[in-house]
Amino acid sequence: MLTFLVRRLLFLIPVIVGVSVGVFLMVHLMPGDPARIMAGIDASQEDIERVRVSLGLQDPLPVQYIRFVGRAITGDFGESFRTRKPVMTEVGSRYFNTLLLGIASIGVAILFGGITGIISAVRKYSVFDNLCMMASLVGVSMPTFYLGLMLMLLFSVHLGWLPLVGKESWRHLILPSLTLGAPSAAVISRMVRSSLLEILDQDYIRTARAKGLQEWVVIGKHALRNATVAVVTVVGLQLGYLLGGAVVTETVFAWPGIGRLVVQSILARDFPVVQTCVLILALTFVLINLVTDLLYSFLDPRIRVQ
Question: Does the domain spanning 93-305 belong to CATH 1.10.3720.10?
Fold first, then answer.
C-alpha cells in the first residue's frame, strides 16, 4: 500500500507543474491590461507604466512565472490588484464556502442517485425503473441555471419554504446543493444501476440466492459491495466537477464561493486572484483523484500490484 501511495504521489509532481504553467499562461494571455484598468480611463501613459511597474507586469513572462511559483511554494500568492488585500484573505473563506457547497451537493447526489440506482437495478424494466432512467436523462440534460431558477420559483417564491439567495443559515444551502447535485445524481444513478445489473448476473449471486439468503442480504452484502468499486471512481470525479463547475450555481443563488470570485476577478483582470483560485481548484481536483485511487485500491486490492 505504501509503494502504491508513493507512486501516485510521484505522478502528481508533473501534473502540478503542468497545472501551474497552464494557469499562469492562461491568465496572462487574456485580453486586457490590468494596469490600464487600475489606472483609470483618464490616466496618462506614464501613470499606466507606473502602475505596471508597481504590479511587476513589466518583467518577462518567465520571470513573472518564477516569482509566482516561488511565492506560491511559501503560501504567498501576492496581493489582489483590485482590493490590494492578500490573495489568500480574499480566497480563503470563499474556497471553504465552495467546498461546503460541493460536499453537500455530492451528498445529495449519492443519496438520491444511490437509492434510485439500486431500486432500478432490483426492479429492472419496471415502471419505477423507466421513470428513474427518464429522470436521469432530464437531470443530465437540463442546464444548471434553469434548474436553479425553477427551484427558486417553486420553493422560494410560490411556496415560501426556503430562502431565495445568500448564505446566512443551513437553509440557504438546500436549493444550491439540490441544483448542483442533480446532474451528478443522475450520473451516479445510472452507474449504480448498470454496475448492479452486471453483478446480479454473476454465478455467486445465484449461489447466494440458492442458499436461501434474504434478498436484502444478497443485494446489500454481496452485490452492492462489489458494485461500489466502479461507483467510487464516478463519485470522486463528480465531486471534482462540482467544485470546479459551481460558478453558475453560485451566481444564480448569490452564494459567496470561489466561482463567483473567479468571475469578478476575470472581469477586473485581477491576475493574482484568478491564478490562485484556478490553481487551488485544480489542486483540489488532483487530491480528490488521489483519494479516489487510494479508496479504489482499498476496495479492490488487486489494483495495488499494478
Answer: yes
